Amino acid sequence: MAESLAGSPVGAHATKALPSLLYMVKQVELVVRSRLDELVRPYGVTALQYTALTVLERHDGLSAAQLARDSFVTAQSIADLVRSLEGRGLIRRERNPRNRRELLILLTAEGRELLAGCAEPVRALEERMVRELTAHQSEQFRQALSKAWHALS
Hints:
Number of strands: 2
Shape: globular
Radius of gyration: 19 Å
Number of helices: 6
Strand order of the largest sheet: 1-2
Distance between the termini: 29 Å
Low-confidence stretches: none
Helix content: 55-70%
């Protein structure tokens, strides 16, 4: 019998089944993105822009292709995102000294200030997400997500 993404059997004799892990991961992703958009909107950025800024905070000086991969957007989308963030003064681009044809994207002081302003609300969102887990369960959840990501990467 075939299964839908939600994990329910498809067909005339379908019974109530638990949702699949894929479905549940997608539910969490969508609600996190929605809540994150709400949190960062007052700072004038979207959840995708915020994600790109946090990637640069951890790994400053990336190429557009690297930033796109690490921010979970397409190469086409990153060009608009970079233009927008650069126009706001949150990032800057400079030539790679090892490859003059390549531009590296760097976080500016203004970008760091924006991230600092968002830090507490974003931390509170993450705490809310795992508030019914013990510290040990939360760490196990983090490890399980990491292992799942590595298994599919």
